[in-house]
Amino acid sequence: MARIIVIGGGVGGLTTAMLLARDGNDVTVLERDPAPPPTSPDDAWYGWERRGVNQFRMIHMFLPRFREILEAELPDAVREFEDLGAIRFNPFEIIPAEITGGFQPGDERLTALTARRPVGETALARAAAKTANLEVRRGIAVVGLTTGDRNGVPHVTGVRTDAGDDLTADLVVDASGRRSSLPAMLTAVGARTPEEELEDSGFMYYGRHFRSPNGEIPPVMCGLLTPWGTVSTLTLPADNGAWGLGIITSAKDANLRALKDVDTWMRVWQALPLVAHWAEGEPVDGNQVAIMAKIEDRCRSFVVDGAPVATGVLPVGDSWACTNPSLGRGMSIGFIHAVALRDYLRDAPLDDAAGTAKGWHEMTQDTVDVWYRDTLSFDRHRLAEIDAGIAGEAYEPNDPSWEILKSMEHASGQDADVLRAFLRIAGVLDTAGEVLADAGLFEKVVGLGAGWRDAPSLAPSRKELLAIVAGSA
To answer: Which of 107, 110, 119, 209 has the lowest CB atom count within 10 Å?
Structure first.
């Protein structure tokens, strides 16, 4: 049994900790925010303070891959989700059978078990509290690392808290998310600086939440993420008859910053015909728009020139890499990463600290790096497409991968097999490379999707959009 400290008690930290504890390790989670999880969904939404998570009340969705892993690995957490009102959502249960050919074997994988972020995190916290060998300590911030030395490389032996306490461990796992300060803590103890790819994703989010009086989710008439010219929308089912709506813009689009005003937000939303009805519910976040900006796409490598910058500490989830959240993949990728860590530590000899660090780097490349790269590619293309639209130009990147993605999106409205494949990619069930390795499917995508540029658009023109924002349409 290894003594493991997990830094961070959010979604990634709790799932990682439960997997490691249920594998026989002695796990302690240190979470800087002091407030304990609440007792009800409304208390979670209105009263739980998680200042360490700046997007805590922004729109979220737990995708099908997250549900699939949760059911396989943490079935009691599934019950906690359901007890708190999380819903199961599968588009193939609501899309007419004449389009899909009816529900078929394998379509069950497309089911999401989803909730608003505070509600989902409450469910995970409840499951963690009932997990043997696991202690969650709240209100304890990690401010530094304790180390020894192994062959000239700092070896992490534990952490130092903001109260001045030193806590020892056989392994420290950093799951502190987007705001992880692990690189700074490592350089403070003499480690080399980890390599880092970093750029502003360039998007801004304007989000609101609504609820229906009868507990039903509005009819789905287009993709949950839908492009509308120079904006995109998110329509995300959640828990207890609630859902989240988001308008995504380029951060450089100063003309759309008026979306922070509720009336302006509503005018724009109601002008988008396939999603307008989603805003007919009762607002559950007051007369305000939640704004999220300056979101980084960032990936870190803690093995530089073939050698670990330090040993005894491993990153997981957003501490390793994080992306623009419009695709909603972060929590699912983090869960895949957490399972990989659990499996890896079953055989990794912790007494070979350098080997363990290098092996984890390689495991990360093998299991989740492709998801980061694919997401980053989509982000860059979609932002460039928006910026071209603002300038009144067509977006022609001469990139086959973007051409295929747009063709697949277009073909998915014409062929049930392509639609299933498209949703498997969206649900983080299969990568684009895995799906398109099917030669027959690839031919359908190319054949049916080739005319995507000529497809009629229901989106307002740029001129019309600006008039709607100004209230002069």
So the answer is: 107
